[in-house]
Amino acid sequence: MLTHRTAAVAAESDLPRTDSFSSSVEKDPKVDLHDEKEKVDVESLVVTVEDVDDTIIKKDEEVAVEVISAEDDPDLPVFTLRTVFLGIGLSAFTSVLATIYTFKPQNASVSQLFCLIIAYVLGTAMHSVLPSKGIFRYLNPGPFNIKEHTVIVIMASTASNVAVAMECIAALDLFYNIKLNPALAIFQIFASQMIGYGIAGLLRSLLVYPTYAFYPSYISVVNLLQSLHFGGVLNHKRRRFFWIVFAGIFFWEWIPQYPFPLLTAISIICLADNGRHKFVRNLFGAGSSNEGIGLFSFSTSWTLITQGYPLVWPLRTQINSYLGMVLGYIVLTACYYTNVFNGRDILWMSTALFNDEGGSYNQTAILTPQNTLNSSALTTVGLPRYTTTYAISQMCYNFSLGAAIVHVLLWHWPELRRAFGSARFLKSDQDIDDPHYQAMKKYKEVPQWWYLLLFLIALAVGIGCSYNKGEWLLPAWSVILFTFISGCIAVCLGFISATTGFSLQIKHAMHILSAFVHPGQPVAVMYVNLYGNTTAYQTMYMLQDLKLGQYTKIPPRLTFAAQMAGSIIGSIFNYTMMKSIIDANREVLVDPVGTRVWSGWVIQGYNSSSVAMGALGKELFTYGKPYYLVGFAFFIGLSFPFPFWIAYKLAKKDSWIARYAEFVNTPIMALYMGYLPYSVNGQWWSCFVIGMASQWWARTRRPRWFKKYNYLLSAALDGGSQVILFILSFAVFGASGNAVDFPYWWGNPENLSVDRCALTD
Which InterPro entries match (predicted)? Predict the structure, then answer.
């Protein structure tokens, strides 16, 4: 176990540092170094040569205390003009941008690192421009600091998480001609997010405060924040390292993204085949959407590679995901070519619905004007079909969810018992031995009753907003039922995300469950997403931001305010931008293909699921029907963790059997078996190589470098690639309204996919 002194020092340094906190203590005679109330150990905050070692990080969660400093300056201003101005401005900007991306053919999003970099540039610029003397010192109270920066990032990233409610409201408008009152729609969006926020607050003692809840993907974010704002020789080197890597990937990434897309998916087998054989395309293709599953395909585009988090996910998470993919190569190929689910005569990969002839399914023909199932029309039109790979994928996602619930109960029962025993989770003040949490105890905590009250109010608003023009879009009892189910699942999702960085998918299970609860009601099934799906994911997003606040020592009540403000701003701009886009592009968004500029593929996905699961749940997913195994997979998945847990319990403590049984994470393996039949897959073998180089070789053979630079490298690569992707999206990819195609050549073929593995004509 690490000592508090080791945990409090900044990440490994070759020389003593002069950081903002230690220097302020030395210079300010008013600071009483013996004040027991503040409990400041100055020596613990200054790095010395003795603190530097080559200790290998063995436990995954130790990166939270070895890589991230627990230092804190309680005198740093947080609520400043810069915080308010940039927080509101960037929240509005990112929410509008994220909404635009929702209706684009490109699969893009607004990342937290993008928000972080933009906030840093603007914040430091405001410090340089604004006057800072006399009365103006309140407008510009010193250099742009880490706490202002973090609050702005939390606000902007919260606003940029496009609410599922907005997407469902768009689907109602586009496909069912149900137009909600603007005020009702905005309150619905906000309430669906705040339900998750309320649950997140109640889970803090379990999934925020302890060291084991370290959220791997956030380590690089915090590492970058501390490198940008803390002083000292080491952080000067880190800042220089960051900007060099940032510039390098910025100038490189546009090449595979625009003029030379072959570099996004390099496959020797595909180059040799040149699109002649479908089997080669299906198994080895990976360059274009829904082309193939990418066996032995490598990418040089960090925009794609970072989807596997190779520099930040722990080795255990990555190995389990790669093992799942290996099984996926076998299972998906074998099932397709043996005609499982009767899908051999339709496409290899697609999430759409198909008719008996393999064409697009006419879903409007089987619905009545009241959006319920027309049984007589169904007899004529027939049942829809899934591609084999998509059906298998849905099964694997449900396997994973069932396995996750049992995995958490078996392997984390002691933590659950400590957190929930004797209603301990209702107390804000906890006795937890984590250096970051201990450093936060000087600030006023948010009482648990705040979160409980927020949850109840949001739930009441959500129920009220589900009643529209005399009809229930979703009955009140169903809102409560699926909120309860999603809240329970959020504990499992949060545990796995906090300890592995991995995020489970529950939407398929919620769709099937809602189909049995609301048979023949596609609108109700779609609306269940707001409470059965969104609640769990909003809980997870809010937990991550609460942990970010703990890592950077933001007073908890300001973190609470930042998340609330970001959600309010995001709700307003999500809705207003969505209405503007729909009103101007309705015909294009309803079209299954769309254009290079606008596409409704995200919204169409909700609509297709609501029809298949809602209108036809009984005909497709009950026992003996074509896809009953998709729903039953959840119950099969419940058994997955037991063999490994039993082996661990029966084996000797230090035996190889016990070590490997503990290493296996069946929820991750199960999900990644079905993770491949979507979008492009050219990056996964590059992820494997980079992941092994980082989390195995560098972590064990170069631990000093790993602690100093590994997570900063990830942040620099992510930041640079995301900034250039943002520029390209508006300059040439059509986000501004006009796409500009690069001229065709060998590396950008006209009649072949970008990896030259499939004919496009």
Answer: Oligpept_transpt, OPT
Per DSSP, 707 falls in state I
**What is the number of helices (H) and of strands (E) in the chain?**
35, 2
> Is 398 in a helix, a strand, or coil?
helix
- Angle CA(593)–CA(597)–CA(600) in degrees, nearest 5? 45
Question: pTM for this structure?
Answer: 0.84
Q: What distance in Å separates the CA atoms of residue 758 and residue 34, rounded to the nearest whole number?
A: 72
Among 603, 594, 587, 580, which residue's Cα sits nearest to residue 739? 594
**Coil, strand or helix at 742:** coil
Percentage, residues of the chain above pLDDT 90? 50
Residues whose CB falls within 8 Å of the CB of residue 129, separated by 6 or more in sequence, listed in order: none
Our CA dihedral for 479, 484, 490, 495, rounded to 10 degrees, sits at 180
Give the integer Cα–Cα distance in Å for 84 and 382: 57
User: Are 465 and 172 contacting, i.e. CB atoms less than 8 angstroms apart?
Assistant: no
- The residues, ordered by sequence, that sit 6+ positions from 224 with a Cβ below 8 Å of its Cβ are 113, 116, 242, 711, 712, 715, 716, 719
Angle of helix 146-160 versus helix 81-102 axis, rounded to 10? 30
Nearest CA to 202 out of 539, 610, 495, 688 is that of 539
Q: What number is the average pLDDT over the span 38-50? A: 37
Say if residue 421's pLDDT is above 80: no
CA–chain centroid gap for 27, Å, is 43
Per the CB < 8 A criterion, the answer to whether 34 and 245 are in contact is: no
pLDDT of 715 > 80? The answer is yes
pLDDT digits (tens, 9 = 90+) for 257-284: 999 999 999 999 999 998 889 999 999 9
Cβ-based burial of 574 (10 A; exposed 0-12, middle 13-18, buried ≥19): buried
> Dihedral through CA 341, CA 346, CA 351, CA 352, nearest 10?
-110
- Name the range with the highest mean pLDDT among 96-110, 684-698, 715-729: 684-698
Quick one: average pLDDT of 463-471?
Answer: 85
Query: 3-state class of 506 per DSSP?
Result: coil
